[in-house]
Amino acid sequence: MDYIEAMKELASEVLDLLGEGLWIPEKQVFSRQIKDVQSDSVLRFNHYAAVKQQGPFSKGCQEDRIGFGEHSDPQILTILRSNDVGGLEICLNDDGLWIPVPPDPTQFYLIIGDALRVLTIGRFVSARHRVLANTCGDSRMSIMYFGAPPLDATISPLPQFVSSQKPRLYRPFTWGEYKKAAYSSRLGDCRLDLFKPGI
Ligand SMILES: O=C(O)CCC(=O)C(=O)O
Ligand SMILES: [Fe+2]
To answer: Where is each Fe2OG dioxygenase domain found (predicted)?
Structure first.
């Protein structure tokens, strides 16, 4: 419980700084969503067991396995902590270039979620990421805090970001609707596409 409260505080501070960086007059516009008592934020523990070598002809360490398939996190902001076992990778561009993220148990890692991407019309982008488990080394463990709005909160770009050059890309939807879409689609699907106008 203390950990969740501490993560909520940390996420709120980071979101306030992001709001400030975007010159948003009401700088708590993002953090108040996750501070709301009805916030749908969750904590998840992940454990990726090291994959055992398959036999005399296996390729050993080269034989990487997907531990968590590629996806973007649907919420506003994720705070990740892990042990010192690697495996996390982020996709830097549309060409599918995967970059390993070095593990550091003394650090928190931040991942922008789809909801923040929509609220800021892409000024912050929800990076796709995945986890590989491989045949050498120990098990990776991570604790994920997903900061989310209340289920009935509307996810729609802040008016000051909308312009003729930057029109809204999706119809307004509630976090509850988006969460339902996320859980009823495949992990790697781009769920935001479901909310494009006319679909
Ligand atoms: O375990 C990790 O390092 C990342 C897991 C993840 O991306 C997730 O739980 O959404
Ligand atoms: Fe994730």
So the answer is: 38-149
Q: Whose CA is nearest to atom 9 of ligand 1?
A: 144
Distance 159 CA to ligand 2 centre (A): 28
Reported ipTM: 0.98
Reported pTM: 0.91
Domains identified in the chain and CATH numbers = 2-53+61-195 (2.60.120.330)
SS (H, E, C) 3-71: HHHHHHHHHHHHHHHHHHHCCCCCHHHCHHHHHCCCECCEEEEEEECCCCCCCCCCCHHHCCEEEEEEE
Write down the catalytic residue from 81, 128, 130, 140: 140
Condensed to tens digits (0 to 9), the pLDDT of residues 84-99 reads 999 999 998 777 799 9
Catalytic, 81? Answer no
